[in-house]
């Protein structure tokens, strides 16, 4: 049996099912689709810091799997990262780099810098040659000032004053290119980001639902979850369906009472 | 599906090889501990292997920590186990349901490589997932009592499963409240 049965594995990927899966695919088993985020994610630099924005739809093929997922991931108290691409990859990569940054903070005793996160992300993604499909917009404010970067799945990065990624990136970029200027105030920055995300939501089929915004300034980060809800649910009937008890045919019923668990309180701590 | 201080988890009973039915009593919803259940859909061998691995990890956790795992922790464990096989995945989509701190219901689903999707109302997976999304979306009401929750979950399951030829042969519904577990077939 594989190592996982003896001890928990040391980390990293295990490839032991690849051959089996290839054999199953030959026999005609269709691989289930991955959850993609088919997204609009944006970031821009304003006078005091960085504003990041994202939509909240997660798709599984043509079906919307999650109408309100979180695409702005925490990396450090002063650094946040929006992720597009395969949902499992963006979550795993951002969690992993977030832990590495935390350990680095403990080792150095200093606030994390955005370029540190950037280098950790790009080296991980490059080493997997684009197979870890995560396209990220990384933004934050550190001692050297506000920074905004984009990271592509193959590991290349760009440093920009405003950036968009994801399937809705063209719709959002059109809004940025026409209305961005340097030295925006906080309100103008938030409004421009929300406008860009809304352009992505309404014009791109892979993006939808609500707008999440995150404003990072020196010393303060505000995560405005569901900042705007331009797609409220209007089709539910107010009465809803109600089913009378006994409408479903039941063949057997088994009810188990849950006993409260007995607490074993420790005695005094051992003394030398 | 989440109700008022309770949750319900349900599955169909068919096991098949493409269009041929092999068993009509296949168990897909498994107990991890009294207040935590996992339903696994997909390739039957991966369902059973993954369940055995998870029970192994949970038992080790119970021995080390002398308590049961919280649903959120368990969801992270399942996600990590699935993502480890990112390039040769298990053909399995889990649905996790449990009562957490203060008996607050917790549900989540994942795709086959561990992308967690938390929801406050309902989660679905399997071959009939598209119909299930539609049925649950229209039949769900917030804060349902356990009896009403059972009826809603069963009707949604039956309605969707009737429209899918690869699912069927009855259903199995488990409703868990802080004081009791009701299993119905």
From TrEMBL, chain A:
Source species: Leersia perrieri
Cellular compartments per GO CC: cytoplasm; nucleus; proteasome core complex
Database matches in InterPro entries: Ntn_hydrolases_N, Pept_T1A_subB, Proteasome_bsu_CS, Proteasome_sua/b, Proteasome_suB-type
Catalytic residues in the record: 39
Function, in words: Component of the proteasome, a multicatalytic proteinase complex which is characterized by its ability to cleave peptides with Arg, Phe, Tyr, Leu, and Glu adjacent to the leaving group at neutral or slightly basic pH. The proteasome has an ATP-dependent proteolytic activity. The proteasome is a multicatalytic proteinase complex which is characterized by its ability to cleave peptides with Arg, Phe, Tyr, Leu, and Glu adjacent to the leaving group at neutral or slightly basic pH. The proteasome has an ATP-dependent proteolytic activity.
Cell cycle keyword on record: no
Keywords attached to this entry: Cytoplasm, Hydrolase, Nucleus, Protease, Proteasome, Threonine protease
Protein name in UniProt: Proteasome subunit beta
Reaction(s) this enzyme catalyzes, per UniProt: Cleavage of peptide bonds with very broad specificity
Main location: cytoplasm
Subunit and interaction comment: Component of the 20S core complex of the 26S proteasome. The 26S proteasome is composed of a core protease (CP), known as the 20S proteasome, capped at one or both ends by the 19S regulatory particle (RP/PA700). The 20S proteasome core is composed of 28 subunits that are arranged in four stacked rings, resulting in a barrel-shaped structure. The two end rings are each formed by seven alpha subunits, and the two central rings are each formed by seven beta subunits. The catalytic chamber with the active sites is on the inside of the barrel. The 26S proteasome consists of a 20S proteasome core and two 19S regulatory subunits. The 20S proteasome core is composed of 28 subunits that are arranged in four stacked rings, resulting in a barrel-shaped structure. The two end rings are each formed by seven alpha subunits, and the two central rings are each formed by seven beta subunits. The catalytic chamber with the active sites is on the inside of the barrel.
Pfam families according to UniProt: Proteasome
Domain of life: Eukaryota
Keyword Cytoplasm annotated: yes
Protein family (similarity comment): Belongs to the peptidase T1B family.
GO biological process, any: proteolysis involved in protein catabolic process
Intracellular or extracellular location(s): Cytoplasm; Nucleus
GO MF annotation, one: threonine-type endopeptidase activity
From TrEMBL, chain B:
Gene3D superfamilies reported in the protein's UniProt record: Glutamine Phosphoribosylpyrophosphate, subunit 1, domain 1
UniProt-listed InterPro entries: Ntn_hydrolases_N, Proteasome_beta_3, Proteasome_sua/b, Proteasome_suB-type
Compartments, record wording: Nucleus
PROSITE patterns tied to this protein: PROTEASOME_BETA_2 (PS51476)
Pfam families, per the entry: Proteasome
Origin: domain of life: Eukaryota
Keywords tagged on the record: Cytoplasm, Nucleus, Proteasome
Functional summary from the UniProt entry: Non-catalytic component of the proteasome, a multicatalytic proteinase complex which is characterized by its ability to cleave peptides with Arg, Phe, Tyr, Leu, and Glu adjacent to the leaving group at neutral or slightly basic pH. The proteasome has an ATP-dependent proteolytic activity.
Subunit composition and interactions: The 26S proteasome consists of a 20S proteasome core and two 19S regulatory subunits. The 20S proteasome core is composed of 28 subunits that are arranged in four stacked rings, resulting in a barrel-shaped structure. The two end rings are each formed by seven alpha subunits, and the two central rings are each formed by seven beta subunits. The catalytic chamber with the active sites is on the inside of the barrel.
PANTHER family: METALLOPROTEASE TLDD, PROTEASOME SUBUNIT BETA TYPE-3
Name assigned to this protein: Proteasome subunit beta
Organism of origin: Leersia perrieri
Classification of source organism: Eukaryota, Viridiplantae, Streptophyta, Embryophyta, Tracheophyta
């Amino acid at each position: 049996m594989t190592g996982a049965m003896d001890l928990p594995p040391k980390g990293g990927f295990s490839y032991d099912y690849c051959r089996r899966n290839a054999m199953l695919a030959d026999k005609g088993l269709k691989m289930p689709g991955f959850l993609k985020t088919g997204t609009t994610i944006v970031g821009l630099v304003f006078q005091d810091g960085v504003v990041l924005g994202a939509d909240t739809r997660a798709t599984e093929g043509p079906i919307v799997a999650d109408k309100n997922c979180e695409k702005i991931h925490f990396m450090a108290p002063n650094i946040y990262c929006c992720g597009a691409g395969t949902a499992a990859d963006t979550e795993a990569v951002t969690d992993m780099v977030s832990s590495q940054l935390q350990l680095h903070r403990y080792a150095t005793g200093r606030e994390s810098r955005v370029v540190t996160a950037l280098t950790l992300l790009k080296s991980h993604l490059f080493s997997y040659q684009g197979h870890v499909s995560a396209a990220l917009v990384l933004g934050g404010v550190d001692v050297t000032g506000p920074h905004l970067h984009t990271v592509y799945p193959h590991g290349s990065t760009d440093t920009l004053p405003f950036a968009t990624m994801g399937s809705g990136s063209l719709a959002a970029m059109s809004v940025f290119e026409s209305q961005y200027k340097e030295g925006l105030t906080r309100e103008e920055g938030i409004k421009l980001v929300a406008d860009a995300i809304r352009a992505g939501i309404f014009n791109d089929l892979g993006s939808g639902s609500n707008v999440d915004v995150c404003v990072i300034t020196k010393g303060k980060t505000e995560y405005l979850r569901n900042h705007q809800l331009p797609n409220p649910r209007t089709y539910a009937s107010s009465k809803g369906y109600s089913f009378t008890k006994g409408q479903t045919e039941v063949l057997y019923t088994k009810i188990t009472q849950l006993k409260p668990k007995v607490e074993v309180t420790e005695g005094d701590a051992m003394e030398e | 599906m989440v109700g008022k201080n309770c949750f319900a988890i349900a599955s169909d009973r068919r096991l098949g090889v493409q269009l041929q039915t092999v068993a009509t009593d296949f168990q897909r919803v498994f107990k991890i501990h009294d207040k935590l259940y996992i339903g696994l859909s997909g390739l039957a061998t991966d369902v059973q292997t993954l369940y055995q691995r998870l029970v192994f990890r949970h038992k080790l956790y119970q021995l080390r920590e002398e308590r049961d795992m919280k649903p959120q922790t368990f969801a992270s464990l399942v996600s990590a186990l699935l993502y480890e096989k990112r390039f040769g995945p298990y053909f399995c989509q889990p649905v996790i349901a449990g009562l957490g701190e203060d008996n607050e219901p917790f549900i989540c689903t994942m795709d086959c490589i561990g992308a967690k999707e938390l929801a406050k109302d309902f989660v679905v997976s399997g071959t009939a997932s598209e119909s299930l999304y539609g049925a649950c979306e229209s039949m769900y009401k917030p804060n349902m009592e356990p009896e009403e929750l059972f009826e809603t979950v069963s009707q949604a399951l039956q309605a969707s499963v009737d429209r899918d030829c690869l699912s069927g042969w009855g259903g199995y519904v488990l409703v868990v409240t802080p004081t009791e577990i009701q299993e119905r077939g």
